[in-house]
Amino acid sequence: MTKPAYFIIDVDIVDAEGMKPYQAAVDGTFRAFGGERIVAAGRVDPLEGAPPSGRIVVVRFPDMASAHAWHDSAAYRAIVGHRLKAARSRAFLVEGVEV
Fold it and tell me: What pTM does this model have?
Protein backbone atom coordinates (compact mmCIF):
# COMPACT_ATOMS: atom_id res chain seq x y z
CA MET A 1 0.00 0.00 0.00
CA THR A 2 1.20 3.51 -0.74
CA LYS A 3 0.60 6.73 1.09
CA PRO A 4 -0.52 9.65 -1.09
CA ALA A 5 1.11 13.04 -0.66
CA TYR A 6 -0.58 16.41 -0.72
CA PHE A 7 0.92 19.71 -1.84
CA ILE A 8 -1.00 22.33 0.15
CA ILE A 9 -0.52 26.01 -0.52
CA ASP A 10 -2.04 29.12 1.03
CA VAL A 11 -1.40 31.75 -1.62
CA ASP A 12 -2.18 35.47 -1.46
CA ILE A 13 -1.74 36.97 -4.93
CA VAL A 14 -0.40 40.52 -4.87
CA ASP A 15 0.29 40.89 -8.62
CA ALA A 16 -2.41 39.24 -10.75
CA GLU A 17 -0.63 39.93 -14.05
CA GLY A 18 2.66 38.62 -12.74
CA MET A 19 0.95 35.42 -11.58
CA LYS A 20 -0.53 34.56 -15.00
CA PRO A 21 2.52 32.70 -16.42
CA TYR A 22 2.56 30.42 -13.35
CA GLN A 23 -1.18 29.80 -13.46
CA ALA A 24 -1.08 29.00 -17.17
CA ALA A 25 1.65 26.37 -16.84
CA VAL A 26 1.47 24.81 -13.37
CA ASP A 27 -1.17 22.13 -14.11
CA GLY A 28 0.97 20.58 -16.83
CA THR A 29 3.96 20.39 -14.51
CA PHE A 30 2.24 18.41 -11.76
CA ARG A 31 0.14 16.17 -14.03
CA ALA A 32 3.40 14.78 -15.46
CA PHE A 33 4.11 13.40 -11.95
CA GLY A 34 0.64 11.96 -11.29
CA GLY A 35 -0.60 15.10 -9.54
CA GLU A 36 -4.28 15.96 -9.45
CA ARG A 37 -5.72 19.25 -8.20
CA ILE A 38 -8.42 18.42 -5.65
CA VAL A 39 -8.97 21.85 -4.06
CA ALA A 40 -8.77 25.14 -5.92
CA ALA A 41 -9.53 28.29 -3.98
CA GLY A 42 -13.03 27.33 -2.88
CA ARG A 43 -14.89 28.68 0.10
CA VAL A 44 -13.09 28.39 3.44
CA ASP A 45 -15.11 28.25 6.66
CA PRO A 46 -12.64 28.72 9.54
CA LEU A 47 -13.67 26.63 12.54
CA GLU A 48 -10.74 27.14 14.91
CA GLY A 49 -7.87 29.61 14.83
CA ALA A 50 -7.03 32.19 12.22
CA PRO A 51 -8.24 31.63 8.66
CA PRO A 52 -5.75 31.29 5.80
CA SER A 53 -4.50 34.59 4.44
CA GLY A 54 -5.08 33.68 0.80
CA ARG A 55 -6.49 31.01 -1.45
CA ILE A 56 -6.02 27.34 -0.62
CA VAL A 57 -4.96 24.90 -3.34
CA VAL A 58 -4.38 21.17 -2.76
CA VAL A 59 -2.74 18.82 -5.26
CA ARG A 60 -2.73 15.07 -4.54
CA PHE A 61 0.23 12.95 -5.69
CA PRO A 62 0.57 9.15 -5.61
CA ASP A 63 3.33 9.37 -2.99
CA MET A 64 5.92 11.68 -1.42
CA ALA A 65 8.59 10.69 -3.95
CA SER A 66 6.38 11.84 -6.84
CA ALA A 67 5.53 15.08 -5.07
CA HIS A 68 9.19 15.86 -4.40
CA ALA A 69 10.14 14.90 -7.96
CA TRP A 70 7.56 17.39 -9.28
CA HIS A 71 8.64 20.18 -6.93
CA ASP A 72 12.30 19.63 -7.86
CA SER A 73 11.63 19.21 -11.61
CA ALA A 74 13.05 21.53 -14.24
CA ALA A 75 9.54 22.26 -15.53
CA TYR A 76 8.32 23.47 -12.14
CA ARG A 77 11.55 25.30 -11.35
CA ALA A 78 11.13 27.20 -14.64
CA ILE A 79 7.83 28.75 -13.49
CA VAL A 80 7.89 28.92 -9.69
CA GLY A 81 9.74 32.25 -9.74
CA HIS A 82 6.61 33.89 -11.18
CA ARG A 83 4.60 32.79 -8.13
CA LEU A 84 7.32 33.78 -5.70
CA LYS A 85 7.42 37.30 -7.16
CA ALA A 86 3.65 37.73 -7.58
CA ALA A 87 2.33 36.23 -4.35
CA ARG A 88 2.95 35.63 -0.69
CA SER A 89 2.52 31.97 0.09
CA ARG A 90 3.05 29.12 2.50
CA ALA A 91 3.42 25.69 0.93
CA PHE A 92 3.69 22.21 2.44
CA LEU A 93 3.96 18.58 1.43
CA VAL A 94 1.91 16.37 3.74
CA GLU A 95 1.91 12.58 3.69
CA GLY A 96 -1.54 11.01 3.76
CA VAL A 97 -2.73 7.68 5.09
CA GLU A 98 -2.28 4.39 3.26
CA VAL A 99 -4.83 3.75 0.52
Answer: 0.91
